[in-house]
Write a structure and sequence with these properties.
The protein is α/β, with parallel strands linked by helices and 291 residues long. It contains ten helices and eight strands. The chain has an eight-stranded mixed sheet, sandwiched between helices. Helix 6 packs antiparallel against helix 8. The protein is globular. The N and C termini lie far apart (43 Å).
Length: 291
């Protein structure tokens, strides 16, 4: 680890923000990009949008921001990003898992081609849960090198526990002994149950996006337990106006970015102690039940 850390000047940090070419991700990158001695990597799928976002942030005064391709659906891109960061920097101090996909009801916005619910499950869970997990696993060795590493998972009120219709499912996702392989199996089970038309009777909700976010919040708590030196938290940014909801949200993306940026940048001391395994909304820890 000494040879890895030696690649960076003392005190210099590296942040990776996925899905940072627009919306909440771009606003998080803007906040991180304005901090001295911090390289912010915008990891996103669309090269043109990624390059445009970098130009926009640089014009707004963000010094050290750059684009690197990353696609949640492509595990090789997670490996490529990890290789790039390893070779160039040797560490990651901040990982913001913001990228996600969401199938919206076409009757709401009129812009989205309709994807039948049975076909939504595999794509949504593969991207939002397994894609996020794959990148996190790739970057964990680089995070462990950091003096004060953080993982921030952008979740949603859609992933509140109360959408689960069975106590057995609630007990599973909230178990203090939950392991990542078991969580992976359960997320795969949801996809199979949807495709077999039995998800409702098995206690699952009628939302693939919400279920993917339940998986992400559960993963946050498991990682926080298994990686005690990394601050791992999830954030609900609120219903922000972004492309994902055809800008129907009732708050600006900048507001949704604030808590993730604060957790990324906070100094750990007596006043703001190390905190991990928590779920936040607007700067405060909230219940996963949303009660």
């Amino acid at each position: 680890s000494f040879s890895l850390a030696a690649k960076m000047p003392a005190g210099h940090r590296v942040a990776v923000v996925t899905g940072a070419n627009k919306g909440i991700g771009k606003e998080i990158a803007r906040k991180l990009g304005s901090v001295p001695n911090l390289t912010t990597i915008l990891a996103c799928r669309n090269k043109a949008l990624g390059a445009a976002a970098v130009k926009e942030l640089q014009a707004a005064g963000c010094g050290d921001v750059l684009f690197h391709p990353f696609d949640l659906a492509d595990e090789q891109s997670a490996k490529a990003l990890s290789v790039f960061v390893t070779d160039k920097y040797g560490q990651v101090d901040i990982l913001v898992n913001n990228a996600a996909i969401c199938f919206n009801d076409p009757t709401l916005y009129g812009k989205v081609a309709h994807t039948p619910f049975k076909q939504q499950a595999a794509i949504t869970v593969q991207n939002n849960f397994f894609g996020t997990l794959a990148l996190t696993k790739e970057l964990l060795p680089l995070l462990r090198v950091s003096a004060s590493p953080r993982i921030i998972n952008i979740a949603s009120a859609a992933g509140r526990l109360s959408i689960l219709k069975s106590q057995e499912k609630v007990d599973f996702f909230t178990s203090p002994d939950l392991q990542v392989p078991d969580l992976e199996k359960m997320m795969t089970q949801f996809v199979q149950d949807v495709e077999n038309g039995v998800h409702a009777e098995k206690g699952w909700p009628n939302t693939c996006y919400g279920t993917s976010k339940i998986g992400l919040i559960a993963l946050t708590k498991v990682l926080a337990r298994d990686e005690p030196k990394i601050m791992v938290n999830s954030v609900d940014p609120g219903y922000c106006a972004t492309d994902q909801n055809a800008n129907q949200g009732d708050r600006p993306a900048e507001l949704g970015a604030r808590t993730a940026a604060a957790l990324s940048l906070m100094q750990v001391n007596e006043e703001t102690p190390f905190q991990s395994g928590k779920h936040f909304y607007d700067g405060k820890e909230i219940s996963w039940w949303y009660k």
